[in-house]
Design a protein that fits this description.
Elements (H helix, E strand, L loop, with lengths): L2 H6 L2 H5 L3 H5 L3 H5 L3 H6 L2 H5 L3 H6 L2 H6 L2 H6 L2 H5 L4 H6 L2 H6 L2 H6 L2 H4 L4 H6 L1 H7 L2 H6 L2 H6 L2 H5 L3 H5 L3 H5 L3 H6 L2 H5 L3 H6 L2 H6 L2 H6 L2 H5 L3 H6 L10 H6 L2 H4 L4 H6 L1 H7 L2 H6 L2 H6 L2 H5 L3 H5 L3 H6 L5
Length: about 300
Amino acid sequence: LTTGDIVALSSAQVGVLSSAQVAGLTTDQLTNFSTDDLRALGSAALRALSTAQIAALSSDQIGALSSSQVAMLTTAPQVAGLNSDSLNALTSSQIAALTSAQVAAIGTAQIATMTSEDVVALGTAGIKALGSAQVHALSTGNIEALTTAQAGVLSSGQVAGLGTAQLAVLETDDLRALGSAALRSLSSSQVAALDSDQIGALTSAQVAQLTTAQIAAMGSDTLNALTSSQIPSLTSSQVAAIGTAQVATMTTEDVVALGSSGLKAMGSAQIHALTTGDIVALTTGQAAVLSSAQAAGLTSTQLAALETDD
């Protein structure tokens, strides 16, 4: 058929084209289909389109596909073969129609070009379907645009694959939405990438879920970002994992916030690292739980700083 013949086809005629007939169309012929003609294609005919044929479709043609037609595209080669222009031609409503299998088939190079609106349009099911490499390919703008619900369904594998630049733009509400497994999957470098506002936004329950390895790897800035209301949530194992260099930088408010149980959990080297100001600030209850081993580790300056009541 000539280009003129293709243009002259009615939508009803296009609607009865078989999969074999559609597969045999040239890219030039396809580009002359009207948007109504494309919407008229049946399921089998639509799924017969090759990667080259889909790539030849204009943004208007891609955008004209109904949500049900988008959901009928094959994972391979059609969705997997979408180039960035074709993927970005999909509207937010079409993106929302993609199945989990289709989302998982999108190439990382194409994921990297998605708009924030389209990433949000994936919904929670779409985010859950992304592989670690796909999540890693999301731009910082995409990560920042995630809804709290989407952040809440991120798996431990997905979170572990986030770059430090991506983590740095996670909103505080999104961090609070992370599940226990996802939070515990953060590496020491990832935890270190979080700023004071992000660390301070963690709930007390989340702080208590951090691994001892994560606590041990915390730098002074990260540890000091914990608020006095978060410090009491630290378990004895977590307190024992704090490095002496970090203990030495703790504020007197945070040392007091450790309470008696937190102080009991400290090793002799940690007690030795406390500043004179920290020792002066100890409550009577805290001083009373100091073990003989801990007391033996106190310097003469620290001992002199203990208040008479302590």
